[in-house]
Amino acid sequence: MNLRRDVFQAIADPTRRAILVLVATQSMTAGAIASNFDTARPTVSKHLQILTECELLKQEQNGREIYYHLNPQKIKEIADFIEPFCNMWDDRFNKLENIMKNYTSKKQ
């Protein structure tokens, strides 16, 4: 059975977010990634599996080694989903800022 994981559940875990940050600039092997954490390698492997199932990471075999790298298309999908919320809050904060400026200038 092919279980499809939710990408937002995947990035909710701080270890998985840290893995994404690690591989954002360069491809890394599972061993290289695991060396950055104080957890057992099978635990990191499980995190890598989840990130790969969500398509946040892609695997690339180079000889005997499997390298993990960020999937920018999937990261963009997440950013595109979040962008309207960012715009909404920016708009709200800008309105609040204008109200506060008007309030202070009227008070003086």
TrEMBL record:
Identify the residues that the record assigns to the HTH arsR-type domain, covering every copy.
Answer: 1-90
- Annotated GO MF terms: DNA binding; DNA-binding transcription factor activity
Give the matching PANTHER family.
TRANSCRIPTIONAL REGULATOR, ARSR FAMILY, TRANSCRIPTIONAL REPRESSOR SDPR
What does the record list as coiled-coil region(s)? none
Lineage, top-rank taxon, reads Bacteria
Spell out the InterPro entries in the cross-references.
ArsR-like_HTH, HTH_ArsR_DNA-bd_dom, HTH_MetalResp_TranReg, WH-like_DNA-bd_sf, WH_DNA-bd_sf
Where in the sequence is the signal peptide annotated? none
Supply the name of the protein: Metalloregulator ArsR/SmtB family transcription factor
Which species expresses this protein natively? Solitalea agri
Q: Which Gene3D superfamilies match?
A: Winged helix-like DNA-binding domain superfamily/Winged helix DNA-binding domain
Keywords in alphabetical order: DNA-binding, Transcription, Transcription regulation
